[in-house]
Amino acid sequence: MVLQAQSITVEAPGTVANVGSGFDIFAFAMERPADRVRLCLNDRQEVRIIKNIGRGAEGLPLDAQTNIAGFVLLKLREHLRTDQGFDVTVEKGIPPGSGLGSSAASAVASVLAANILLGEPLSREELIPIAMQGELLASGVAHADNVAPALIGGFILIGGYDPLDIIRLPIPSSLWSAVAHPGIEVRTEDARRILPKEVSLRDAVRQWGNVGGLVATLCLGPLERLGKYTTDYIVEPIRATLIPGFHDVKQAALSAGALGCSISGSGPSVFALCLSQDRATQVAAAMIAAFEKHRLTANGYVSQINPSGARVIDHAAG
Amino acid sequence: MVLQAQSITVEAPGTVANVGSGFDIFAFAMERPADRVRLCLNDRQEVRIIKNIGRGAEGLPLDAQTNIAGFVLLKLREHLRTDQGFDVTVEKGIPPGSGLGSSAASAVASVLAANILLGEPLSREELIPIAMQGELLASGVAHADNVAPALIGGFILIGGYDPLDIIRLPIPSSLWSAVAHPGIEVRTEDARRILPKEVSLRDAVRQWGNVGGLVATLCLGPLERLGKYTTDYIVEPIRATLIPGFHDVKQAALSAGALGCSISGSGPSVFALCLSQDRATQVAAAMIAAFEKHRLTANGYVSQINPSGARVIDHAAG
Predict the structure, then answer these.
(1) Which chain B residues have a beta carbon less than 8 Å from that of A156?
(2) Is A135 a catalytic residue?
(3) pTM of the entire structure?
């Protein structure tokens, strides 16, 4: 059988996981930065990584078993019981180790692209567990908090894993995020290793008051109260030690008018929530300036919550 | 000055605190059982407990410093800088040590009654911290989770204590509670003493997934999902040891069609959430029958969520 030459490019956005109080359960999708994955069908029944380009791509493997975009395609092929071959080009817009869901974005773009080329046998929701396999490869834990919003967009609550329970929370249009990514790398594995196995019941209770408050405020308002509920008593105090100048950056964000500010995922990126684009722009600038005082050059991103997640950029049938 | 003879009777409802996953942060008000407090102004500048009547009243003190209804009146007088005297009659409908907010209901009925007799210098929200002083006397912790819904009704989330942050969650009209109160007493102090100081981070994360899910489901639906989010990984497994037959009672409730079931407050009462009055009636009967197999006689209560809390029963000016 001779296959039609067919190709597609899918873009998947960066994501902010944890959102302060919701370690491993909250995350939202940004508009940018984003990864792109281009797939072409091949007739060799092989998943081949053609090249990795873009930010931080030089360190990524060309072996499909260890390249996240390739690995999740192998998992998708197993799931669908197909030996369809793909040529894969990964264009990184989200630097690995940034705390912005870099591995999740590559995994999501790859499986969504393949699913479309194969005639959409699975829904986006059904692709989440496949893309989560990439997180297992990347960090040793098959977590869903970056994958889910990268695939379906929005502000997500992971209600549980057994079964996987994804809840979309309302996303007020006035809500903007400001993110500053300093030029150091924090490995997710390292950021997990330093976490305590046990936490005090007192802190756990304070934390779930904030988790409940954050969900209630997204659903019911007023958004001005959101910042308090991003307060993280458990993970931020420990992971902050991995980010030079974190406390100054957070203070700069709050002084510039952010509702709240914490570490994005496992860091080193820092996010803030704001009530307008102008405010988010000012807050991003303030965070970048604060990192500079600690001799770190940071990139800033200002974005509304991305409501729809990964999207097709180019789709050619020939 | 000769005072007008004036009296009032206020009823404050029982409350279900924790609601499974939300230890110390969730609670809702029932329609019944309820405590009643009757106050008459006196001109002796004294708070006098005239009598305690009703269920479990025989063990309650007649000293205003140690009787909760009297103690909170003394606190209210301090707060308002008045030496107005009150004659107090407490009519217990909620047995002490039932886990149904017995002390909170007496405190709430007492302060609300006095506030009305004094011309309503404080709002209901402002009375919450005063009534919380009664909880400090009763159990050594000034918690708000029973007091707040007893005073203002509804399904309450305590977002935090510093400052006190009370969030009213939506209460769907189809939501009913079934409660079974077995004839044993669990002291709140004892139920707190057996709790661990530390919990595993893994359980804490699972718990706050449920806390977030419960808030999201009350706000967004569908209510059928509510039961899962009442699951308590941390407190219920420990406190269940204080309630003979708890696991059989819970299984009976779920088999009879309850969405979810757990311990009310510090127990021994067990609550279940249901989607109709008929179902809640069946579930209450099933729980009572299960307690009977463990040789415990239980009382049952079936109720919607009480939207308004404490209410004036009788108000006479002479």
Answers:
(1) none
(2) yes
(3) 0.95
